[in-house]
Amino acid sequence: MGNQVTHPATRDAGPSGPSLPPEPAFGPGTNQRRRRPRWLTVPLLLSAALWACGESDSPTTPNPDPDPDPEPEFDFNRPLMAFETDRDLNWEIYVSTEDGTEVANITNAPLSTEWDADWSTDRQQIAFRSDRGGDVDLYVMDRDGSNVVNLTNHPASDADPSWSPDGSKIAFRSNRDGDTELYVMDADGTNVQRLTFHPATDAEPRWSPDGSKILWRTTRSGNSDLWVMDVAVDADSLIVSNPLNVTAHPAFECAPEWGPDSFGISFVTDRDGDNEVYLMNIDGTGVTNLTNSPNSSEFWSGWSLDGLTLVFDSNRNGDEDLFLIDADGTNLRPLVVNDATDDEVPRWR
To answer: Is residue 134, in this structure, part of any structural domain at all?
Structure first.
């Protein structure tokens, strides 16, 4: 695709990217374009004509090399993480090397907004949300941004994709039936099935790595909590059962992510007065404040494949940047830092 290497310097269901800046006006408080005075037109044309007659026999100077030191192509055949950023004046999906030294824009859609990246289990595709077609739909693309396909193509708003571990299905949220519910579809966009039936908001589904459960955010308990339910496949249908509130706390809980063992989870809560990333076992035990930064807001997190490290976004530097931290809360270090933009919602696996 010709992606060039770039060396890098609490939202709700999705950010609304900043609009493109207007064209500059001529003079303060006006909308007049700069125009050449009419009295300059004739002399300029005459000068151009004289130059053309007098210089027509001059030898042509060869063009210098337009890019004597071109940037190397971004190598997509290595471990990567995905994230959202507004560094191009709209929200795009980028990928980063695991050390944050190189990033690349893989959506390259300057007239739309791209959010909600989620890796397929084999890490060869990324599902994401976009309004590039006019509606907010779910799309899929290869890991380098090629072969983009609209999966939902529906006038409703579809978001929060989560691949099943075997890669055959994608869970998501939609308001296509009037309120926000959870749905599942085959990975090619067919066989859409509704999973939840409740007047409350159901959102942010995350499929467990072993495929046995779906963790999600819902307001059915009166505030935003994290619930889990069992899932099983029966022919072409997905059967869900045993919904259980696993946080059951009066604080606002959101942004759940599974650890690789299908037992530990990370999530965001304001139970200590500010947004922090917490860890917890799926049975409700072992609740731990991982980031513990009372003077900033921490949000969306993601786990490394070995479960030893988490990535999260934080505004501790003033804007949203990506940081790494060990699962025991030590060894905090920056990953992707760009002082002029926001980098959010990292997806490692």
So the answer is: yes
- What token pair was written down for 332? 């905090």
Domain range for residue 131?
Answer: 80-347
End-to-end Cα, the chain, rounded Å: 23
Q: Which residues contact 167 (CB under 8 A, 6 or more apart)?
A: 120, 121, 122, 187
Tokens of 148: 């983009």
263 domain residue, yes or no: yes
User: pLDDT tens for residues 88-115?
Assistant: 999 999 999 999 999 999 999 999 999 9
pLDDT single digits (tens) 150-162: 999 999 999 999 9
Amino acid identity, position 252: F
**Which pLDDT score is estimated for 67?**
55
Query: What sign does the CA torsion over 271, 275, 281, 286 have?
Result: negative
Read off φ and ψ for residue 130, nearest 5 degrees. Answer: -155, 150
Angle of CA points 230, 235, 241, to nearest 5°:
20
Does some domain include residue 116? yes
- DSSP assignment, residue 312? E
| Domain count along the chain | 1
